[in-house]
Each structure stands twice: as structure tokens, then as C-alpha cells.
DUF971 family protein (Roseospirillum parvum), 127 residues
Amino acid sequence: MSAPGAATGTPRPTGLHLDRQARQLSVTFDDGASFDLPAELLRVESPSAEVQGHGPDEKVLVAGKRNVGFIDIEPVGRYAVRLIFDDGHDTGLFTWEILYRLGRHREAIFEAYLKALEEHGLSRDPG
């Protein structure tokens, strides 16, 4: 049996560090890539059905998460982690592939998020 990520060519993490104070997850991969992923980005891009829906056109725009933080991180097998956010969200499984994609395209993903918030008259701030 091959290692998770081997079939897709996705690099595997060599380090994960959850910084609760800075509200970010730092991930390093075996290809040398290293990413600092803010809790807000991870929360609004959660791979959970609550955020992504059950189909390609069902993604929910999550607002008010500028100050969201982490409570914990839990390994899920050898292929993912579950992030537990301080707003109670804990259902998304962040596979290595998802974390790598979010890290690699962080700026574009976040810019698209900000644009969508603006278009819908929503804010990053709670309330």
C-alpha cells in the first residue's frame, strides 16, 4: 500500500505547528514548501459540508471570522488533521492536499474571499 499523497503526488507534511496566540497553523512539506495559514482562512475554507455544501454550487460564504482562533488540532490517520476552532466548528478534515493547496494559493483564495464578502455586503468582523 502506498503512502497517502503518493498516488496524487501531493507532498507530505514534515512539520505542523499550531500557534494559538498568532492564530495560525504552520505547515512544512517534504518538497521544501512551508506555509503559515491563518485561522480565519482555514475556517472560511473548511472542507466541511457545513461550508462546502454537498455539491460544487453549494459553498457557503462564511463571514465574521476575522478573530477566530484554534482550540486544538487532532491527527486523522496519516492523511489529515481536524482543526477545532474556538467558534465551535470542528467538522472539516484538512487533508495534506487541502493544506498544500491553501498554502500554495493563499493570497488568491483570500482575495477572492474578501471580494465575495464585499459583493454580499458582509464583513470579516463578528456581529
